[in-house]
């Protein structure tokens, strides 16, 4: 039997990277996780693990040589919008400079295929239409700016060095592994859905809605939520195209449906049977009003059709994971919630 191609997955011990590693295994690839474990979890690792930073060229070189890497999936990055505004240096060093170090190691190893984890934040303050890839990119925070700079680097490397690279701009990754094995687990949680669920469990006493004065129907910001399992499938599809000789490009990954913060909280209440306790605070710096994807290009090229990104599945799987990952502080039995019913 032919040896399975080895795929280096930077940040493969994190939320999205670990889901992609499982999708790679199911698709017949051999994931090699490259992670410094600063925010990732050793227990999430699927496949071989190389502990290292993407700025560590010596460790990267050994990983490429020892595992005969055929392609790279690149998730390793700092990714908190608010933190990027407060500490932009961290984001340009970790994200931009780190990616340049990775690309240097790839060139040394003659590995010229990359699937890059980009973001809808490259668009900045957009209007209320679903955004196509040719929409003007004007990021309003250093996180989005660092990702857009990397996209430009990849475009230049594609022309100069023949790099095959997909930049997958996904919107709000959410939900958890359908089997319940992995999910969102961070020391400092800032994302809406997991933070709301932690508030229900008694772990977050100060859950806040940031801004109720946006120019939206209910005053709260609107986002496009996509299930992490669907994201993983799209990454594998992009990888397969690269291995077939496709040159890559930038593609949105989303559903085309936008939900406000209040709509998400209402859906969580419906699924769990509990209202999320919250207060309203001023807007956070760097948060756009509306961010929804036009994913038609990904549908046409990657054959990307989300299968698990309806809001009910997202919330059900996320809640099941949080009930498993975080012991309740509310005193309620862990098996009393209706959202733990089997998947539809």
What this model shows, in words?
48% of the residues are buried. This protein has a seven-stranded parallel β-sheet, sandwiched between helices. It has two domains: 6-174 and 225-253, NAD(P)-binding Rossmann-like Domain (Rossmann fold); 192-222 and 256-332, Alpha-Beta Complex (UDP-galactose 4-epimerase, domain 1). By secondary structure, the chain is of the alpha/beta class. Helix 1 packs across helix 7 (228-243). It has ten helices and 14 strands. Strand 1 (6-10), helix 1 (15-26) and strand 2 form a beta-alpha-beta unit. Mean pLDDT is 91; it is low at 330-344. The chain has helices at residues 15-26, 57-67, 81-86, 88-108, 142-161, 192-200, 228-243, 261-272, 296-301, 311-325; strands at residues 6-10, 30-35, 48-51, 69-74, 113-119, 164-170, 172-174, 208-210, 222-223, 225-227, 248-253, 259-260, 279-281, 290-291.
List keywords for this structure.
alpha/beta, Rossmann fold, UDP-galactose 4-epimerase, domain 1, 7-stranded parallel sheet, disordered C terminus
């Amino acid at each position: 039997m032919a040896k399975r191609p080895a795929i280096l997955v930077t940040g493969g011990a994190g939320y999205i990277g670990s889901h992609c590693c499982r999708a790679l295994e199911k698709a017949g690839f051999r994931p090699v996780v490259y992670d410094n474990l600063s925010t990732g979890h050793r227990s999430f690792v699927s496949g071989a693990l190389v502990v290292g930073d993407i700025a560590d060229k010596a460790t990267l070189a050994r990983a490429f040589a020892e595992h005969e890497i055929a392609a790279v999936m690149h998730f390793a990055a700092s990714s908190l919008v608010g933190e990027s505004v407060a500490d932009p240096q961290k984001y340009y060093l970790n994200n931009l400079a780190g990616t340049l170090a990775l690309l240097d190691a790839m060139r040394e190893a003659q590995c010229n295929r990359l699937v890059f984890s980009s973001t809808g934040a490259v668009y900045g303050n957009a209007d209320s239409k679903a955004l196509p890839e040719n929409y003007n990119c004007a990021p309003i925070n250093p996180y989005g700016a660092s990702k857009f700079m990397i996209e430009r680097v990849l475009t230049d490397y594609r022309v100069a060095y023949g790099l095959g690279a997909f930049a997958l701009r996904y919107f709000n990754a959410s939900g958890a592994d359908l089997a319940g094995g992995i999910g969102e687990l961070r020391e400092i949680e800032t994302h809406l859905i997991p933070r709301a669920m932690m508030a229900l469990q008694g772990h977050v006493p100060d859950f806040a809605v940031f801004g109720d004065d946006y120019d939206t129907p209910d005053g709260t910001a609107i986002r496009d939520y996509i299930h992490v399992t669907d994201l993983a499938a799209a990454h594998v599809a992009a990888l397969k195209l690269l291995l077939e000789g496709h040159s890559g490009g930038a593609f949105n990954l989303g559903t085309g449906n936008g939900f406000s913060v209040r709509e998400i909280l209402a859906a969580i209440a419906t699924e769990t049977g509990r209202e999320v306790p919250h207060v309203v605070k001023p807007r956070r710096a760097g948060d756009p009003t509306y961010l929804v994807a036009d994913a038609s290009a990904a549908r046409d090229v990657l054959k990307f059709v989300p299968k698990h990104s309806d809001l009910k599945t997202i919330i059900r799987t996320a809640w099941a994971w949080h009930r498993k990952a975080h012991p309740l502080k509310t005193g309620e039995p862990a098996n009393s919630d209706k959202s733990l019913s089997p998947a539809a």
